[in-house]
Automatic annotation (TrEMBL):
The keyword NAD does not apply. The lineage of its organism: Bacteria, Pseudomonadati, Pseudomonadota, Alphaproteobacteria, Rhodobacterales. InterPro entries: Integrase_cat-core, IS30-like_HTH, RNaseH-like_sf, RNaseH_sf, Transposase-Integrase, Transposase_IS30-like. The keyword Repeat does not apply. This is IS30 family transposase. It comes from the Bacteria.
Length: 337
């Protein structure tokens, strides 16, 4: 498989300029730089500085070549050439849309004549202009830098194959058994601090627990989860399903502290824990992304949780999650005795 083309770096351009001054042939320069000679010929042709007023200034200058290259990349970006389109993309990124959703939606809206592919949006987000606006923090994965998919470190040691959601028992998948939970974090605007809200949903009853975290560190999160749910009888806390976020890497403490099994979604597949994802959308009615959590009283969070658990659900035969959860807990009492 051929290696992907990589543009010349500034250091390579400096070496090229020095070798040119020494009157070394292009083929030899290419050999020393580990490049194809066509790459060197193309570099000299594109970035050779011409100055009609000062002919003595003509030549290949590494800093000038780097600036010319950067300028071409900037002008070639469709988003930078069309400010209105760029503003629309940034607005939707801040609303939580993924680049694929933005690109797909633009194809349906008659007001936008220009179209994009999601790869163009990703490149813009990780460009100098996108990084200056910190656009990467609005992406689902929130990576600071973009890496090749093949270069990313595997998390198989943190999230082992045996704990994949595909190995989860069918009784859990079918919601036929009580005591299986799904958990996720709700993230809020960065300028309001690192505080977030954890959402934990029992799959069968849809009973929901909400609690606030001061940051996204994994050990405090798991410790708080153990403190809240460990008092339940063992049949009421049999397993937890998470995504592969770094905030859940301390899942082994959960298994040791509560004897509960941990399951994990596939990479970039949060929809596999649909119960908690659906509940997050319900919670967003009361806690939008611009909520200042530090100014939110604990009783307000408890009130939201009680309201959700007291709302009748069609999937429960119009019973409330609190009613179903209480009934299932009563059924656990003979076992625990």
């Amino acid at each position: 498989m051929p290696c992907p083309f990589v543009h010349l770096s500034l250091e390579e351009r400096r070496q090229l300029a020095r070798l040119r001054e020494q009157k070394i042939a292009v083929a030899e320069i290419a050999r020393r730089l580990g490049r194809h000679r066509s790459t060197i010929y193309r570099e000299l042709k594109r970035n050779w500085w011409h100055d009609a007023e000062v002919p003595q200034a003509e030549g290949y200058w590494p800093m000038t070549a780097q600036q010319l290259t950067d300028g071409r990349r900037r002008s070639s970006c469709k988003l930078l050439r069309h400010p209105q389109l760029c503003a629309a993309v940034i607005e939707r990124l801040k609303d939580g849309w993924s680049p694929e959703q933005i690109a797909g939606r633009l194809k349906l809206e008659p007001g936008h004549v220009l179209q994009l592919c999601h790869e163009t949006i990703y490149r813009f987000v990780y460009s100098k202009d996108g990084q200056s606006q910190e656009l990467a923090r609005y992406l689902p994965e929130r990576r600071r830098t973009r890496k090749s998919r093949h270069a990313r470190k595997p998390r198989s040691l943190v999230f082992p194959e045996t704990s994949r959601i595909h190995h989860r028992p069918e009784a859990v998948n079918a919601r036929a058994e009580f005591g299986h939970w799904e958990a996720d974090l709700m993230i809020f605007r960065k300028e309001h601090g690192p505080a977030n809200v954890a959402t934990v949903v029992e799959r069968k009853s849809r009973f929901t627990v909400l609690f606030r975290n001061n940051d996204r560190r994994s050990k405090p999160l798991m410790g708080r989860l153990i403190d809240l749910l460990a008092p339940l009888p063992q049949p009421a806390r049999q397993s937890f399903t998470f995504d592969r976020g770094l905030e859940f890497v301390s899942w082994r403490e959960l298994e040791a502290g509560m004897g509960a099994k941990a399951w994990f979604c596939d990479p970039q597949a949060p929809w596999q824990k649909g119960s908690v994802e659906n509940m997050n959308r319900r919670v967003r009615r009361y806690l939008p992304a611009d909520t200042i959590l530090l100014a939110l009283a604990d009783r307000s969070l408890r009130s939201i949780c009680e309201r959700l658990n007291a709302t009748p659900r069609k999937c429960l035969g119009w019973r409330t999650p609190a009613e179903v959860f209480r009934q299932e807990l009563l059924a656990c009492e003979p076992w625990s005795g």
